[in-house]
# Entry
Amino acid sequence: MKKLFIDQKDLYFAFENRMPETSHYLNLETGAIVPVFSFNRGKILAEIEKNPDKYVRITPIGSKGGVQIMKDYIETVPKPQIRQELKEALTKKGAFRGFRVVIEKYPEEKEHWTEFKRNATLKLIKDWLANFGIELEFATNDKKYQRR
# Structure
């Protein structure tokens, strides 16, 4: 597998991006994350068209993937009351906001959630990159999530 150095912050942002009319591409040669906004769309897409084997579009995780990460996290919550509140939040309209409101009430749980989400996102990213024969390389604490 080819190792590619990629900016961690840019990569996470691209995978979690939900801004309308915004997309990101990964330069498979340099590891650069190339943002495409309305003001630079023509120029960037023209470059990508000229070199289609050099770029791949990053598809954000999206709502479905985000909900799955939350569901997976809920299964790790040891306190039944908190686990139930989080499950209920996901059944209502505005599930992401509801989940966030519940998690904010429990600072220790919020810390666990943040670490879990980061690691789940990292796994999705690594799996996606493996499809292109790329091994991710950046400085990170890449431990598998374990509740303390």
Residues 139-148 have pLDDT under 50 and may be disordered.
